[in-house]
Amino acid sequence: MKHKQNATELLKTSLGVLKMKTPISVASGTFDLETLEFYDQNCLGAFVCKTITREPKKGNTPPRLYETEAGLINSIGLQNPGLDMFIKENLPRYRDVLAVPLIVSFSGSSIDEFCRMLEILEAQDGISGYEINISCPNVENEGIAFGTQADVVHKLVSRLKPITKRELCIKLSPNVTDIAQIAKAAEDGGATSLALINSLYGMAIDYETGMSRVKMGVGGYTGIGIKPVALALTYKTAQAVSIPIVAMGGIYDWKDALEFIWAGASAIALGTAHFVNPLAAPEVMMGLGEYILGKGLSIKDIRGACRFS
Ligand SMILES: Cc1cc2nc3c(=O)[nH]c(=O)nc-3n(C[C@H](O)[C@H](O)[C@H](O)COP(=O)(O)O)c2cc1C
User: Fold this and answer.
1) Cβ neighbours of residue 295 under 8 Å, at least 6 residues apart?
2) Pocket probe mutation, ligand 1, options 24, 26, 28, max atoms within 8 Å of Cβ
3) What is the pTM of this model?
4) What does the pLDDT look like over 118-138, one tens digit per residue?
């Protein structure tokens, strides 16, 4: 479809209830508030904060970041100030600094805890939606990660849904047998959008000494090396659900971003790219803008339209 509008119009996208002026967001845990204060936010359609837990978490002991030949291994361990401190200290600063919708990423250790956290967050202003991080262990289910079992995901999302009318985005783990089944469970439970992928498992060892490069041994693998996996999982998920997808995993530039939109994403998030290039987001916006203007296409025209022959 050919359009006559300008790039600003063509770049607009939306999730379930959230309108985004560009399809670009930041991946949870990769872009901090301090950086944001000096940042031109015109390129962003939304901002996702680092995952918050009910209680503060000190995180894992260093070393906890290692750059591989093709991406990053991290074992930060969800370091965060906890929900009460987040509301007292961080949220007012986000309200002051943020010019785009804030999505709060949070995680619980039981379904009841997720619900209680959502009730508390619902009472706060300045939040446009939530990204539910389900990659964490469920203490009521032998510590098995919430996001690996479709019935648990369905139960969790069904309990969260009546508590909020804001964007309810479920962030999926790639470390599952069938991501489409988990995605469908989240959609059936009432999710308004999905975010994927969270980190893959990864490990690096110093070949000379045998020492693990991160203290915890196995960490989360992200960045350029996971792009083909993330792209395939985005495509598979988009085939299985009709709610919008925010895709991430190894997106470094506008061409990467475009691939994910062809595969079925309505928006994309930049994560590890920020460690290499803090200006990745404005560059992606420029590149996407020039592409869609040149082709006379909008994000909606491209989304899910990849071809096989
Ligand atoms: C240092 C670091 C910290 C992260 N922290 C979180 C987090 O708190 N919550 C979360 O859902 N994902 C977290 N992630 C995962 C990212 O949000 C994203 O899903 C993943 O990095 C894949 O995207 P990328 O390849 O563009 O980085 C983190 C990733 C990195 C590299």
Assistant:
1) none
2) 28
3) 0.97
4) 999 999 999 999 999 999 888
